[in-house]
Amino acid sequence: MRNNFLEANKVHTIPPGFVVTPPPGKEMIRAIATTSPWQFFSDEEITKYHSEHPEERYPIISRSEEGFASKFNQKIKIIPRPDWAVASCIFNVISKVVPQYGKIKVTSSPSYAEVYLDGAYRGKTPITLSNVKVGKHIIKVTKKDYHNYSETVQVKGSSTTYVFARLRPVPRRGSIYINSTPSNAKAYLDGAYRGRTPLTISNLEVGEYQIKISKDDYYDWYSTVRVKQNITAQVFAQLEPIPRTGSLYVTSSPRHARVFLDGIEQGTTPLTIVDIEMGWHEVVIIKEYYRAYVEYLYIYAGEETEVEADLDRI
């Protein structure tokens, strides 16, 4: 159908590619039949038009009914007998009806979280919200012990909008109260110094912690404590002093010899001497009619040292 020519005595349909476009309003299709070949544009004019307007399939005579009629009358000359005829079809162009509702599918990790649409509770995940009006909406997802999740979504007609909420857990916290005897001892939590007893360590995540209590002249004290949510764990350390003295057990043959420690008489054998400062000491054992026994020895803290003296008779 080059140049839109239609063969007579046949039924014709609008050719493929013919699209009705906005704006809405009244449109008209006009068919013209003549007894002799006739056209608005020559082949040269059509070729030139297509080269200048490659996006348009057909030349545009006019964009208004009045303009078309004016140009048509300029082309058709009045003649005595009717050798041409015109038929018109008028139709209305209306806007496309856009669906006004869509869906929102909400899932979460972990699941079974509460879902709110624009502040109204709608159920638990996973859930599909139907008949949601087109436009912007606020989805909020909540779950105990997790931070809230909120997202603004744009709902389109006859389509499904997807929301996935990855919920972040709210850290569960507790505290530890630490005291000791004697007090003013250094407290360590998982190896990190936290202060001196008594003290409270707050805002700790739930879980197990290693406690160390340290003080000069005392053995270090260790313990494991479990922190529970919203509870203060109690820790008490009874520190054990580090011994700084030792003891000495002295025997002799014969018995009942006098014993001197660092020049001070302590008693007669067999004899136990306690609370001796650790370090080097002199022990002298004497008995009438026997040679004196002398020994230098080291006293270890927390230990008992033994001396066995075999006395020689004079």
UniProtKB/TrEMBL annotation:
Q: Where are the transmembrane segments?
A: none
List residues of the PEGA domain. Answer: 102-169, 174-241, 246-312
Q: Where is the signal peptide?
A: none
The protein's matches in InterPro entries, at most eight in alphabetical order, are given as:
PEGA
Q: What is this protein called?
A: PEGA domain-containing protein
